[in-house]
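User: I'm preparing a small set of examples for a lab meeting where we compare how different chains pack in three dimensions. I only have the primary sequence for this one, and I'd like the structure in token form so I can line it up with the others. Please keep the answer compact; I'll paste it straight into my notes.
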Amino acid sequence: MNQSVFDIKQNALFRDRVKDFLIDCVDQKQSMAEAHYHPYYELFYVVKGSCRMFVGHKLYAVNEGELVILPPSALHRTQYETEAQRITVSFTPKYIESMKSILGEDFLSKYITPGKLHFTENKKKEIEAFLTELLSKYEKSLEDLLNSIDLKTLLIQLLVFIARNTEFKCKNELMDKRTESIQNAAKYIFENYGKDISLQEAADIAGIRDTYFSRLFQEITGYGFKEYLLNIRIQHAQEMLRAGKLKITQIALACGFSDGNYFGDIFKKRTGLSPREFRQLQVKQTFLP
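Assistant: Understood. Below is the structure token output for the 289-residue chain.
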């Protein structure tokens, strides 16, 4: 099943080739050119090396044996200073729907929540064994139905393993004062995207001069200030368009755009679709068999 996500290279919406389930293992050293988000869950595990991930408004230093949970629509960007090997497990809400009779209705909202887990050496071996077997079963699942059943069984076991080990979730990242100040500013933007937020206001929240703030925000998060604010606004606009409860002009104002036409232009530039076309596409996908 194709998914609609923003193509960072073409600066437009594209049909993601991620199906209902995908797992891959990649040696990565090139940082993301821009932030992105997608309509599926992603479990991001670092096997070797390290990277930095900016998720929503939180910055994580992700090292070997650590797992980041990304729910649908979580805005994120990954930066690499050196080469790292990572395994990502991606699955759509539709894929997990058939497992709710086993996991329960509120399993995902209770346990598969945004954040980073750090495992002990023994737990690290356990989760890597799950991931290695998942990789093997995924290749075989393309061949016959029985292997695809095995795949779902393994995914359930992996999710239960994560749920049993939520005590390893890192509640507070250790960071220097500069990073903490920038994260505070990002959190403010994330929670107040509907307001008319200026660079000066964000710099004041961080307690940093505006000229220095702009460069430091880019250095630490990988985003420019305006880029981050715009991404947050477009992300929320998409969620409101999917919900279908507000008029497009109301959504524009709620997301911090003072002019409906400007909102439409920016939205189409960032997604490849006008707000109306995006909403119509979501309605069509909802009623697809």
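A couple of notes for your slides: Residues 1-17 have pLDDT under 50 and may be disordered. The first strand starts at residue 3 and ends at 7.

User: Perfect, thanks.
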